[in-house]
Design a protein that fits this description.
The chain is built from four helices and ten strands; from the N terminus they run E-E-E-E-H-H-E-E-H-E-E-H-E-E. By secondary structure, it is α+β, with helices and mostly antiparallel strands. The protein has a single domain, classed as D-amino Acid Aminotransferase, Chain A, domain 1. Helix 3 links the parallel strand 6 and strand 7. 26% of the residues are buried.
Length: 187
């Protein structure tokens, strides 16, 4: 059946309007670490697989050695349990490097992994948890710029912050430098 403007409005094709999350609800602000996006996938059968932001990787077709690291730490990574576990692979030779002599894997889900986790994994530092406001975002960024990285104390060129809106289950980034410039245009 079509309505007066020609749209199919039969019950089989009904698409409801999505619920709208409230803006003034909780948010978690974490440090945005400058490395390369990575994921560990643990299968129901205990298999462990490595991925980048957009492809599977292997020790033979790697991304800054992450797949090799996953293979070497598979026993510990199984402790994450079945599912996809996203994080940042960062440190020596990757983006800012942070003055480190090693590479690290830091999980993004600080709410889940802020406590116990496999010894081989870190977690992104939580800088604020509370109700969302632009004042909270701005103050968190000011503090990060003034004190430097929480992930590596003493490193004074942090990349920025990630704002996770808990009701919407969505993330946003705010960069410490050139946040108003498109990625390809920053010098």
């Amino acid at each position: 059946m079509e309505n007066s403007i020609g749209l199919d409005v039969s019950n089989d094709n009904f698409i409801p309007f999505p619920k709208i999350p409230r803006l003034k609800r909780g948010c978690v602000i974490t440090e945005k670490i400058d490395g390369t996006n990575a994921q560990v996938v643990v299968g129901e059968d205990g298999s462990v697989r490595a991925g980048s932001r957009n492809r599977w990787i292997t020790p033979e077709d790697d991304n800054f050695g992450f797949a090799r690291w996953v293979a070497e730490h598979a026993d510990g990574l199984r402790e994450l349990g079945p599912g996809q576990h996203f994080g940042e692979w960062w440190g020596l030779g990757i983006q800012r490097g942070y003055g480190l002599h090693e590479r690290r894997f830091s999980l993004f889900n600080a709410g889940r992994w802020g406590g116990e986790r496999p010894a081989c994994c870190g977690v992104v530092p939580v800088l604020y948890a509370g109700d969302f406001s632009t004042d909270a975002v701005d103050e968190t960024m000011r503090n990060l710029k003034a004190t430097g990285s929480y992930a590596v104390p003493g490193f004074f060129s942090p990349e920025g912050i990630i704002v996770y809106m808990t009701a919407a289950r969505h993330t946003y980034k705010v960069l410490a430098e050139n946040d108003d410039v498109a990625k390809g245009e920053a010098a």
